[in-house]
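Sample entry (137 residues):
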Amino acid sequence: MSNKKALSLIQSYYDAFNAGDMDTFLSLLTDDVIHDVNQGGREIGKDAFRTFMGKMNAHYKEQLVDMVIMASEDGTRAAAEFVVLGEYLSTDEGLPPANGQTYRLPAGAFFDIRDGKVARITNYYNLQDWIAQVERS
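Predicted structure, serialized as tokens:
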């Protein structure tokens, strides 16, 4: 895959996320996708990712803005930096109570790309910053 195609793939991934189009979003993943959860464990497989996204969409409403996407020359690796604009909809287990708080959170992600699809996604954000934002709202 070329650098240009990798950039396009990751842009499509985030466009589908922002549109709430989970069918398209999930179609851009390999069946054995690896998901490294921020400050959590590793999940493997599209079904596990689908379950994760179902939980996320039940608790949070998010849009990603100020997107910068980079890719290796050979198109096998990519990274993105962005800002998450979110609303905390319902209380997520182990986290502060939700009451519609809004947040603005810098974040980033790293990708492995295989056969024109995302084969690994690793997201990073500062959980303590998020907690502080929702606790003061």
